[in-house]
Task: structure prediction
Amino acid sequence: MKFHIMTLFPGMVMNALSESITGRAMGSGAISVEAVNIRDYANNKHNKVDDYTYGGGAGMLMQADPVYLCYEDITKDLSAPPRVVYLTPQGSTYDQNMAKEFSKEEDIILLCGHYEGIDERVLEEIVTDYVSIGDYVLTGGELAAMVIVDSVSRLCPGVLSNSDSPDVESFSDGLLEYPQYSRPEVWHGKRVPEVLLSGDHAKVDEWRHEMALVRTMDRRFDLYKKYVLSHPDEFIPKKSRRKKRKKD
Ligand code: 6GU
Result:
């Protein structure tokens, strides 16, 4: 998977993504990440990429041409037009299913806006997906682009060392992950749940599934409801551990 990030702050994304698992994946060639500076495509001597908005109002807008020229430069060597994801609070909310979809692509362009956004005309010409990472406002799309690179990378072959882990974790079956414990057996007076020491794998699996259900009910009642509706034949524990649940 090749990520092409269009940004005014290439250092910001490259520094962060060069650490930890994404950094290792770049090193091994399992993924590649290039951050392309949109400012390099400004055709004026001050390298200016923003201007006032027609119709007035506060703030500056990124202009169409530098964004388009940058896009052309990235795509000139690609065999097919890639998906272009514009990171914006006006997009569809990102989730694990989108991560799975994106991980099937050969190349993906992530377009990061700044200021009040980008001239609509260039968006109409190049953008295929409008994506937000949640209902809050960031100063720019870079953090959102990093969220996408991180979450998509770990679904790409050769990125995680334990290749089966993406299937057992939170969200893959619509439930949050069960609680986990490591040594010591007693910490601050708290014992590791007895069943985990029993060596009975069927019992352990059953306990973990039940804990995943309880946790999802307590913390994400929206996901819990969906799970119950799509598993009509399964016995579902009705008791929450929390006394009061926020209405949702
Ligand atoms: Cl993708 N961009 C910006 N600027 N703010 C956001 C966002 C994206 N997602 C949530 N807030």
Summary: The chain has a mean pLDDT of 93. The pocket of 6-chloroguanine is lined by residues 87-89, 132-134, 136-138, 140-141, 144 (CB under 6 Å). The first strand starts at residue 2 and ends at 7.
